[in-house]
Amino acid sequence: MKYSVKDLEFLGRQVAEGHYVARTTFFLSILVALMVGGVAGYFFGDNAGPSEIKQPVSAQNQAGGQEAMSKHLFDSILQQEQLVQQKPDDAPSWVKLGDLYFDTRNPDKAIAAYEKALAINPDMADVWVDCGVMYRAVSKFDKALEYFDKALKIQPKHLTAMFNSGVVLHNDLKNDAEALRVWGQVVAINPEFKTPDGRLLADLLKAHEAEK
Known about the structure:
There is one protein chain. This protein has 2 domains: 1-6 and 61-121, Tetratricopeptide repeat domain (Serine Threonine Protein Phosphatase 5, Tetratricopeptide repeat, Alpha Horseshoe), CATH 1.25.40; 21-55 and 122-212, Tetratricopeptide repeat domain (Serine Threonine Protein Phosphatase 5, Tetratricopeptide repeat), CATH 1.25.40.10. The protein is mainly alpha-helical. It has helices at 5-16, 33-36, 65-86, 91-103, 107-120, 125-137, 141-154, 159-172, 176-189, 201-211, and strands at 26-28, 42-44. The chain contains 10 helices and 2 strands.
């Protein structure tokens, strides 16, 4: 993939504005009005507990922090771009490049890198999930569901894939009944599955049932 000056400028704006989160957190703005009457943005990770959110660069106290982080990201991406050109058949290298673009919220380039990795090794459930999250970021909701489903075929109890499917069904496709069914499966597998603010998903589902 070609890495242009325009892309560098895009990354610089994203980092300067504090739009930098870990790849293992999924920016999923889940509308919980259906269940508890509130609206909130959530970050969900690969486990049942709250995900760690990296400190936004804009909140760093040290002078030059933004510039240092930007340079670090730019260098990492440029190095990884060079590496995948040297090792085009190395799936982990493409995954790492996709992760870097995920971190900097460049979904189109993240998708392109993840697709390269999955073409080489389609047995990576986490990568299907990450790519699905990026498809959701560009409003390709059916594609996101398809990729979460691919992850579940590899790892049937992949809670992140399952939960993310519910998010797309509820938020984007407005299929509340199916979303609740999927989230019910998450709770059946892990009753302690929590939202990042510490609430149990099971409690949210119970609240919804009580309001019927």
